[in-house]
Amino acid sequence: MSGTVTAVSSNGEYSFTKPNHESITLLAGLGVEGDVHAGVTVKHRSRVAQDPTQPNLRQVHLIHEELFAEVGEAGFTVSPGELGENITTRGIDLLGLPVGTLLRIGDEAVVELTGLRNPCVQIDNFQTGLLKQVVGRDEAGNLVRKAGVMSVVRQGGVVRPGDAIAVDLPAEPHRPLDRV
């Protein structure tokens, strides 16, 4: 299983969207260099309010580019970085991967998937009605979160659009991603 990086984004200030860049640098154990969410402990405001000493399991946010086409069919226009992700991918079913999956990105970087992004009302503040497109229910009535996956940086390196992504699954039994 493999895919490609289509965009990279970061922002040093709290903002819902993140501007695209020619490259980003991942720092082991921290996240994206210069990004407001980088750090050993939580940086997302809601999590800091709960307990600022929690480990940061949301260092790098990845979204599959295929989601943009899906929400486009419902009349929404979303581009890379606009949902706050750091890395936009193509060709990998990110949501279907298990906890602990390693993504080898480019020449050096490695991230480990920790869980699903829990979409929040900020998505509707960005585009009214978009939240319903990225959160739904499956046939059994279970909640389905489609707004990407979260990860921690296991090995640093520079990541650029066009970089290959290789997927290394963890040992079985696999545990499905859940919100983190």
Number of strands: 13
- The neighbouring-strand order within the major sheet is 1-6-5-11-8-7-13
Number of domains: 1
- Model regions low in confidence, pLDDT < 50 over at least 5 residues: none
CATH superfamily: PK beta-barrel domain-like
Give the SSE string.
Answer: EEEEHEHEEEHHEEEEE
Shape: globular
Gap from first CA to last CA:
24 Å
The biggest sheet amounts to:
7 strands, mixed, barrel
The secondary structure category is mainly beta
CATH architecture: Beta Barrel
Helix content: 10-25%
What average pLDDT do the residues reach?
A: 95
Question: Approximately what portion of the residues adopt beta-strand conformation?
Answer: 25-35%
Q: Just give the CATH class.
A: Mainly Beta
- Helix segment count? 4
CATH fold-level topology:
M1 Pyruvate Kinase, Domain 3
Write the layout of secondary structure elements.
Layout (H helix, E strand, L loop, with lengths): L1 E8 L10 E2 L2 E4 L3 E2 L12 H6 L9 E5 L1 H7 L14 E4 L11 E4 L3 E8 L5 H5 L3 H5 E3 L5 E3 L3 E7 L1 E3 L4 E5 L12
Parallel strand pairs: 5-6
Antiparallel strand pairs: 1-2, 1-6, 1-13, 3-4, 3-12, 5-11, 7-8, 7-13, 8-11, 9-10
Describe the overall structure.
With about 180 residues, this protein is mainly beta. The protein has one domain (about 1-170): PK beta-barrel domain-like (M1 Pyruvate Kinase, Domain 3), CATH 2.40.33.20. The chain has helices at about 45-50, 65-70, 120-125, 130-135; strands at about 1-10, 20, 25, 30, 60-65, 85-90, 100-105, 110-115, 135, 145, 150-155, 155-160, 165-170. The protein has a 7-stranded mixed beta barrel with strand order 1-6-5-11-8-7-13. Strands 4-3-12 form a 3-stranded antiparallel beta sheet, with no helix packed on it. The longest helix has 7 residues, at about 65-70. The relative contact order is 0.25.
